[in-house]
Amino acid sequence: AICASGLMGLPLAVSGLREMKILKRLRVTPVSPVFVLGVELSMYIVYCAVSLATLSVVALLWGVRLRGSLLAFLGSWALTMLSTQSIGMLAGDVAKDTKQASVIASILYFPMLIFSGTTLPIEVMPNAMQKIVSVFPLTQGLTISTGSTLLPICVMVGVAALCTILAVCFFRWE
User: Fold this and answer.
1) How far apart are CA 114 and CA 139, in angstroms?
2) N vs C: which end of the chain shows fewer Cβ within 10 Å?
3) What's the gap between Cα 25 and its chain centre?
4) Per-residue pLDDT tens for 124-141?
5) Mean of the per-residue pLDDT values for the chain?
6) Per-residue confidence (pLDDT) for residue 111, from 0 to 100
7) Distance (Å, whole) CA 152 – CA 159
8) Contact 41/85 with Cβ under 8 angstroms?
9) What percent of the chain is modeled with pLDDT above 90?
10) Contacts by residues 68-71 (CB-CB < 8 Å, ≥ 24 positions apart)
11) Which residues contact 149 (CB under 8 A, 6 or more apart)?
12) Burial (Cβ within 10 Å: 0-12, 13-18, ≥19) of residue 113
């Protein structure tokens, strides 16, 4: 849900608001780009939280136990979600329309999903590829779950901050 909402849903939502001229109408109000992006981000955070809650209920029903710290898991989940959502906001802001947002989203989504370590183990990738995928938020989220914390946290906070700042800078009302 984190990857799908952040990299497929959010870019299409932001560019869709622009394409339907909703952002053009909002421009004459005192609403700032930060507020508009914050509302969109908040909706997708709620979506991810509902997804996590549903997964938690199913895990409890099936008797699945979490190994390690619940607090560390939730922190990793939150950082992964925020950094992925920030990439999605940036993708939606640089896209001219929903078609272009869809292409950008697909270019980001599928490599991140396949090469982050969730589908294909990072250890089997060539060294150069391992360095490239180490920037992916999903890769860093998995790295935190294996015990390493400081570098992945710094990478995810950096990606989230950079992409959020760039999203606000590239925001267009029309």
Assistant:
1) 10
2) C
3) 27
4) 889 998 888 888 888 888
5) 88
6) 87
7) 10
8) yes
9) 44
10) 68/145
11) 72
12) middle
Most confident of 45-49, 109-113, 139-143: 45-49
47-89 pLDDT, tens digit per residue, is 999 999 999 999 999 988 878 778 888 888 899 899 999 999 9
Q: Give the per-residue SS3 of the chain.
A: CHHHHHHHHHHHHHHHHHHCCHHHHHCCCCCCHHHHHHHHHHHHHHHHHHHHHHHHHHHHHHCCCCCCCHHHHHHHHHHHHHHHHHHHHHHHHHCCCHHHHHHHHHHHHHHHHHHCCCCCCHHHCCHHHHHHHCCCHHHHHHHHHCCCCHHHHHHHHHHHHHHHHHHHHHCCCC
Spatial contact of 146 and 122, defined as CB atoms under 8 Å apart: no
What's the average model confidence in pLDDT over 36-54?
92
Q: Count other C-beta atoms under 10 Å from residue 102's C-beta.
A: 16
